[in-house]
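Many groups now describe folds with learned vocabularies. In that spirit, our science desk offers one protein's residues alongside their backbone shape tokens.
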Amino acid sequence: MKYDIRAFDDFKTKIGDVFVKATESVRMIDPQSTDTNISRKAVHPTWKHVQEHVKTQLFDYVSNCTPSDVLHVIRETKTREYLAQILGNIAGYAVCKDVKFEDIARVIPDFIRAELEVATNNPDHPFRKNYVKARDRLWFIEKASPA
């Protein structure tokens, strides 16, 4: 797992995650365990103590963020950014089309719907390339399931 620790502040907020993951990924086996299957052998009591100690003593340095948490935040942030851009562009588009402010919500959706119909039904329209570029740029959130 990549923790993206690049600065001291990153270290302070994420080092607990690194140690917790390390103590969960590595096991010290109890030599008294009689099971012949290594995956079922009991964890040594000392290792259990180390795991618990890391979780409690480094609690202030654990972000507890999962990759899906991060993807959810990125998806929501990008969604808000694109909506703000859309609304800003609609304002300019409405002015260019001489649409009065009070008529924007009624008139503009028809203009946009007509343009989208042309753009999505024509395989040579630049919109298709723009969509592919956006999909390629945002591939990591496209696969993430919306919360």
